[in-house]
Amino acid sequence: MFIIQSMTHATVLIVITIYVLLFFSLKRHPLYPFHAAGLFVHELFTNRKYLFHLLGIVIILFFNKIELTLESKMKHHSDFTPAVFGLEGNFVSIFQKVFENGALTSVLTFFYVVVFPAIMLTSIGVYTYQRQFKLFYAVCYALMINYMIAIPFYLFFPVTEVHAFNPNVKFLMLEAFPTFENDYRPLSGLDNCFPSLHTSISVTMAMIALRSKSLFWKRFVPIAALIIIFSIFYLGVHWLTDMAGGTVLGLLAARIGLRISEGRTIFAGSRGLDVKKRNMDGKW
Question: CA-to-CA distance for 37 and 121, rounded, in angstroms?
Answer without folding.
Answer: 11
